[in-house]
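Subject: design request, 310 residues
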């Protein structure tokens, strides 16, 4: 029903836009000078709508219409890296807020002194995964460290993972013998709904080494159910990535998303610049990007994926 609703909305939008264009053409052909101002306004509105629809048409991947999970992991570098991970978390929360998406913090592990070691978000909205798949990979920050008494320049890294929240039943069998399940006390600022006994769950999938944790539900059973759901989504995405990488290797285009291959650099000193290594798209307003202005990078990535100029 959800897919039907999205398809119906998409078809209706295209049909209404087509009708508005046709109506505007007919008015223009009348040649009435009194309609010039009205036609100019309508033309501007239609241009904006068509640009938005053209961008949406690039979101044609199998799971692009789905909701998504986003995970952030601080890299090596101690407090600076953990603070950078927290900055990324804020950036994606701001981006989701701008688009009116619903966000739930599934798990968050605070840093030793500041920032976070890791966090997982569940984000709901139209085409969330389609937008966010451009963000998968290593993000690099260059700045004067606020944690260095000598104010030296530091480079920090964080890894961002994205996988779709597939709404249909996922045909993935997870054997109990392949799981290591640990319980622990919730460490985040979960408020009164988070119990202080061992309600948090950490599940390790032994064959792949994937680790999933959840601590923000009310009970251990709810946390376990949510963690299993996330694990299945990650296993599904792992298989999808494996297939894509094998195909990319056959085409000679495969580049690992390991720590040595940052997809995007955020430079705050000695100048301000955010540049994507895959598309060469850049923005000088680094603070704006950190406040959630990511659409330019996402559009450039999608344009590059379909072979169009960015």
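Subject: RE: design request

Done. Sequence follows.
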């Amino acid at each position: 029903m959800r897919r039907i609703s999205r398809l119906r909305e998409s078809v209706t939008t295209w049909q209404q836009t087509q009708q508005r264009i046709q109506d505007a053409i007919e008015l223009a052909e009348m040649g009435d000078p009194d309609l010039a101002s009205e036609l100019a306004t309508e033309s501007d509105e239609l241009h904006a709508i068509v640009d938005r629809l053209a961008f949406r048409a690039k979101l044609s991947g199998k799971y692009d219409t789905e909701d998504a999970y986003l995970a952030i992991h601080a890299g090596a570098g101690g407090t600076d890296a953990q603070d950078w991970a927290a900055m990324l978390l804020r950036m994606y929360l701001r981006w989701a807020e701008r688009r009116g998406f619903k966000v739930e913090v599934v798990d968050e592990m605070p840093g030793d002194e500041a920032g976070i070691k890791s966090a997982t978000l569940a984000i709901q909205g139209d085409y969330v995964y389609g937008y966010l798949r451009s963000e998968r990979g290593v993000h690099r920050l260059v700045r004067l460290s606020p944690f260095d008494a000598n104010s030296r320049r530091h480079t920090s890294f964080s890894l961002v993972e994205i996988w779709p929240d597939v709404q249909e039943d996922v045909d993935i069998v997870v054997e109990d013998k392949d799981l290591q399940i640990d319980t622990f006390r919730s460490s985040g600022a979960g408020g009164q709904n988070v119990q202080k006994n061992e309600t948090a769950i950490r599940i390790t999938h032994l064959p792949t080494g994937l680790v999933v944790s959840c601590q923000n539900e009310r009970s251990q059973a709810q946390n376990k159910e949510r963690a299993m759901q996330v694990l299945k989504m990650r296993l599904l995405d792992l298989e999808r990535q494996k297939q894509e990488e094998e195909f990319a290797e056959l085409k000679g285009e495969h580049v690992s998303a390991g720590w040595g291959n940052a997809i995007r650099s955020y430079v705050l000193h000695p100048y301000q610049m955010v540049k994507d290594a895959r598309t060469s798209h850049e923005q000088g307003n680094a603070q704006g990007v950190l406040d959630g202005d990511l659409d330019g990078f996402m559009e450039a990535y999608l344009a590059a994926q379909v072979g169009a100029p960015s």
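The helical segments are 2-30, 36-57, 78-99, 128-132, 220-251, 286-290, 295-305.
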